[in-house]
Amino acid sequence: MLQITNLHASVEGTEILRGVDLSVNAGEVHAIMGPNGSGKSTLALVIAGHPSFTVTQGSVTFEGVDLLELLPEERARMGVFMAFQYPVEIRGITNAYFLRAAVNTLRKARGLEEYDTIDFLDVLEEKLKVIGWSESFLSRPVNEGFSGGEKKRNEILQMAVLEPKLAVLDETDSGLDIDAVRLVAEAVNSLRSPERATVIVTHYQRILNYLTPDYVHVLYDGRIVKSGGKELALELEEKGYDWLREEVVAG
Amino acid sequence: MTTKAVDRYVAAYQRFAANGASGAPTWLQELRAAGIARFREVGFPTVKDERWRFTNVDRIAQTEFGAPPADGETGDVPLFEDLVFGDPKTRIVATFVNGRFAADLSSLSGLPEGVLVGGLAGALAEHGDLVRSYLSRHADTAGNPFTALNAAFIQDGAFVYVPTDVDLAQPVQLVFVTTAADAPSVSHPRNLVIVGRGSRMSLVETYFGIAGSIYWTNAVTEVVVGENAVVDAYRVQRESELAFHTATSVSYQERNSVFSVNVFAFGSALSRHDLTAVLDGEGAEATLNGLTLLAGRQHVDHHTTIDHAKPHCNSWEMFNGIFDERARGVFTGRIIVRPGAQKTDSKQTNNNLLLSKDARADSQPQLEIYADDVRCTHGATLGPIDPKQMFYIRSRGLTEQQARSLLTYGFGVEILNAVAIDELRDRLDGIIHGRLENGA
Fold it and tell me: With CB atoms counted within 10 Å of each terminal CB, which end of chain B scores lower, N or C?
């Protein structure tokens, strides 16, 4: 589904990603871990198409299509979704209005009929249950006045509504209390299907207690230096990231 | 140049005083005389005056405006259907053509007992004492040359009187239309709204002119809100894109009254609107909201003053501006807390969205606080669309154009949401959408 080969990306002339290789198949959940500054968020943002990053080498394909050639909205229409580490506030526009505008754009792109207001409320009601929210969140402007945790949950609500093929969660679990972490994990689990894939970018092993990744990768200094199963996450939790530095330096 | 311009209005006043106005009662003649005397003394404001530093009115001074045609061609009635709302059988509408009350274009049959809605000229004849006890009590002739000029030409406009303890279900709609004329003309609508103790009403003022016509509207509206009364006011400025609009709105509130006004400025080449809310009784609450949506070379200046004269009053103020192309907006938010006005709670925000690099907005909060136990907050934002917001919205599948439109619409919706009349909100929503689709 997602194929990343020798990806190099830089921001304002500084190279952040220095040759990332990653292959994600439909039905899989991948966790990308790593210390601060290793390039985890950059990788997520490059997949989503953030204009600040320049890809200098390598390729990213999604279902065989060169993702790097596409605008952010074109990637979204293909089924790529990123849950933001720092979700943005949109004044005046309610959650319900924004979600409907987004879902209808995607449905239109897929040749599906657009939801009218009434149909959409039914859809939303269902999805709200996933994150344990009341309808009052729908009439509030997008993320405005939301707490940090509420903003992260709102990202999960968007994911649940937009039903992406590939979801990239950029540190969605950081800053959340343990109950919220469990909720996010459950939401990811509920979307799990043979057609979908999830990439969880995280600093902590905590969220992986609630959802079992098929693969764990360690991103270090702009490269994936180690890949393994769930046990790798536990090892990182126990030993921290320092031992990796030694291993990388030792080659 | 300016002296010559002032002389023109003095001469026009003298003709007016000698003709139609000579039959007016002495008190009104004196009011007009004081108005022209003040205007003659101060003339048109200049950018050297602190209160006018961002708004140059030379174009108004230099244009020769004559009297409007007495019987303006109002064209077909469907035009009015775009300016008013509600069931034609029951709605309350007073229409003014070129500043004069037009009974045949008004709809006043459904007025409850004791409620008066109509022209000021008629009210002067029929309820002279009532008008006299309120007219020009609150509009500050000394502080604004245009208010003085309006006073000099007081003749007609809207008169609304709601006695005590009346719950007026239907909004009172006042529609001011300027018709096309061969030469530029000026009208000075003078509006007086008196709402008695314990009464409740909504008021909608709409100013409209035929596209492409050059004229000047110089309006003054005074609203007196009695004790415990609730007034929900709206003002929609849709003047022609070549027109000039100067206006003063003053609300005067007695104790425990609630006054809110939402102003929408879409039209005119140059507009200056001075809004003043005086909270002169304990427990009064005032809300002043505004939305400005401009393009081309339009210029709109909102100069607001909230005067906390008594303790335990609250005020909220939110003005949003959206400026495209070479448009320019000015917002001044003056908040005065008088000595002894303790427990005042006042919040002001002014947000400006610049959709083009040539657009400009100036924001000036002015807090004058003479009491110590108060809470006054203010904040302003100014800038182009945030690229972080753009990326966020695009990452959900919306195009760059859709994202831009959504963010811009959000600025408008924030003010639109405060409109309590559904039909009016839908109408305004349509206007905003229409403007955004045409690139603001």
Answer: N
